[in-house]
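Input.
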Amino acid sequence: MCFVSVPSASFREVGEQLASFTQPRDILISATKGIEAPGFRLMSQMLSEITSSERIGVLSGPNLAEEIADAQYTGTVIASTDDGLCKTVQTILSNETFRESFDVYGVELAGALKNIYAIIGGMAASLKIGQNTLGMLITRSLAEMSRFAVSMGANPLTFLGLAGVGDLLVTCASPLSRNFQLGFRLGEGMTLAEGLTDLGKLAEGVNTLKVVYDRSRELNVYLPLVVGLYRVIYESQGIGEVVSSLMANDQAVDVEFAAPSQWDAKFA
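Output.
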């Protein structure tokens, strides 16, 4: 078993190096939460394409590394179409906090998308928003994630679990999240380059933001928070101007979860 936990920008290169050592029955688990821009490829999809492994899974959830190292209780999701793989991972890691999921694509997509909203959460914290605003922000973030998931063929109900709302809540409110830390710096007035330099660590949400922004425009999916953050980071618009624009948007319909037709009753 091999856990692949490298930045998404290096994932393909590392996967190609790993391929020569991989056999069909080897288990490969991606722990990277990101998206490759060309072709909108998730990490598990790259592992399937690059290596000969027939047993691939995804590890995701609200898993801040510092808290895991400090032995805090943590729920984690292992997703795979291979039920035996899930049980093997649970046994090897010897922990009762794991939850299985067969929606590999949804679990992996949720892990990547939440990084965008964690940046927004950090920006909001630096601006000292109220709890009412935070509640609205997280709710709207979950709505956008679910809406985008449906457009990409994932099960939106996956986003109500640990890999979705669980991870979203943690990263949107925790200073331990790198994406939250970056957002906090942006809210204080730093440019993206300044924020990344000051952070000194990778924030996957930056790359994911651009990839999702481009794909949402192709698919005509309504993602106002993604558009707003894109304008702040890539078009240098003022945060106050973007917030005013977001509040003026039509919000007549609250969050709706409706499984797409291709998902049958066993996922409902």
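The longest strand covers residues 55-60.
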